[in-house]
Amino acid sequence: MRILKQSTELRSLFQKRKIASSKLKWGVCTMSFVEQELMRFINEIIVPNVDTYELQEAIPLDVIRAMGDRGLLCPLIPKNYGGVEYDLQTIGRINEKIGQASASVRSVLTVQGMVSLAILKFGTEAQKEKWLPKLVSGKVVGGFALAEEEAGCDSSNLSTTYTEVDEEYELVGKKTWVTMGQVASLFLVFARSGEEYSAFLVEKDRIGLQVEDVTGMLGLRASMVANVTLDNVRLPKESLLGRLGSALRFIVPTCLDYGRYTVACGCVGLSQACIDVCYSYVEKRKQFGTKLKDFQMIQRMLAKMVTQTKASRLLCQNAAKLKEEEDFGAITDTCVAKYYASTSVNEVASMAVQILGANGCLNEHPVERYFRDAKLFEIIEGSTQILEIMIANNYLG
Ligand SMILES: Cc1cc2nc3c(=O)[nH]c(=O)nc-3n(C[C@H](O)[C@H](O)[C@H](O)COP(=O)(O)OP(=O)(O)OC[C@H]3O[C@@H](n4cnc5c(N)ncnc54)[C@H](O)[C@@H]3O)c2cc1C
User: Domain boundaries in the chain?
Assistant: First the structure.
């Protein structure tokens, strides 16, 4: 199979790397057609261009649409809305493999998945028919607009408000850190009216909506983050998603649960990428006349990296299994998977930099990017501390 053969045609910036960023492999000998197509897409489109995306802090819309064409953007969505309806294990592997190539590109999958899932679960039939096929194909990029300057971990502290004016809703406030916000044409905006929290589908071209690019991020530099200001944005009644007051109890937890699962799987991919780079490096690099791979302290680091990555992958698979079985513990076990995978990938990426020494600190080597990207996984979709609280509280009853 072509994509499983040793590559002789690595292109673009990757040819310049001192350590070849080799094409990714699915990890098993037999691949389904879906898997072959995925790996072909990753190796032909993402891998050769990932450094350009990071440098330009942008992913071309064509790439997002190409993911849509392959059913990767909203893989949970049923076929009658244009989706592919993959199972969660497959979705996990897609996130792992794309995350192995580029954490920024993978972030599209989480956001697009969360917005489409919210519409699927809570939308009216008209909203589903209007938005889902476009989100699936990537013609519309979605933005998940929950966070604000004073509402990070504490989503209940929103200051964005909605009021009913002349049979319409009027939104006022400012949303921060909206992944893909720079190119999103549909925002899922959370706002409050007193103690009532609701969700709205807001098109980018609504009068009063302004998007401001956020650049210079530590990691996930191509995830096109933006702040979104809502200056008396008027919306028709049909823009409300779900019932009034249902946002924090139902819509946000549903979206974050999917977000956590896909981010956890992305962490597994990033961990695997660290391992792959280190394996080829220790094979070649010599110090004291000995290959690094023959030093036991290096072997210890590799053993930890492999073990932690396998453990993260198993936790993700467990979360997917519980979700498929609609098990009551699925939400907590998804938190466990995200908590472990995101903290673990930070240790793994740190060991990868350590193994490469000074070379690991240079942006010619991908571990430099892996190290930066890893940190952000401890902040998004439930910070490490919030997940610790959630996991502990669950077990404390
Ligand atoms: C790259 C990136 C992409 C993002 N994309 C989106 C997006 O698409 N949509 C969106 O809505 N948001 C997005 N966010 C925002 C993200 O959800 C928030 O950053 C996250 O919720 C944490 O909020 P905060 O950064 O304001 O930290 P804060 O809430 O200010 O927390 C700061 C620190 O205090 C800790 N802390 C907070 N509360 C407690 C507590 N009770 N006990 C112990 N420790 C606590 C936190 O763990 C953290 O370490 C994104 C953020 C980043 C960095």
Answer: 18-137, 142-245, 248-396
| 214 ligand 1 Cβ < 6 A | no
Q: Which pTM value belongs to this model?
A: 0.93
d(CA 53, CA 60): 8
pLDDT along the chain (397 residues), means of 10: 31 36 56 83 97 97 97 96 96 97 98 98 98 98 98 98 97 98 98 98 98 98 98 98 98 98 98 98 98 98 98 98 96 98 98 98 96 98 98 92
**The CA-based dihedral angle spanning residues 97, 98, 103, 106, taken in that order and rounded to the nearest 10 degrees:** -130
Q: Which CATH class is domain 18-137?
A: mainly alpha
Classify residue 215 as exposed, middle or buried by CB count within 10 Å of its CB (0-12, 13-18, 19+): exposed
Query: DSSP letter string over 117-140?
Result: HHHHHH--HHHHHHHHHHHHHTSS
To the nearest 10 degrees (0 to 180), the angle between helices 296-324 and 88-101 is 150
The CB density around residue 24, as the number of other CB atoms within 10 Å, is: 22
The closest residue, in CA terms, to atom 35 on ligand 1 is: 385
Is residue 379 lining ligand 1, measured as CB closer than 6 Å? yes
Superfamily name with CATH number, domain 142-245: Butyryl-CoA Dehydrogenase, subunit A, domain 2 (2.40.110.10)
